Amino acid sequence: MSKPILLVVAAALVDVDGRVLIAQRPEGRSMAGLWEFPGGKVGPEESPEDALVRELREELAIEVCDTCLAPFTFASHSYETFHLLMPLYLCRRWEGEIRPQEGQNVKWVRAARLQDYPMPPADLPLIPMLFDLLG
Fold first, then answer.
1. Does pTM top 0.90 for this prediction?
2. Contact residues for 28 (Cβ-Cβ < 8 A; gap 6+)
3. 5-134 domain in CATH 3.90.79.10?
């Protein structure tokens, strides 16, 4: 049986020290407590880049221009009721100070330590790719 495809977009925000920002899903949401890359659903009539710029503004209070988003890789994972397709972009430049807006915890983590944080199944294959890039 075919499942609906859910298109979400995520960013690997990389700071000047080569660390990646991860956010913990707050209580009351599906997969609460798990760590993930910031982002969210792509809306109708929205490009993945536009959705990511919007999500980063809403979630972290930062401004990112779409030309600062570099397509990196993607995740494709089948959950029980839907199939997730998630492009992951690298972003090294943004304006503003990161301030979580949705009650989530955030951490800057070295790529080599990402596996120490429990993540949704779709995010796990992205870790080795980030490690290869950032070490």
1. yes
2. none
3. yes
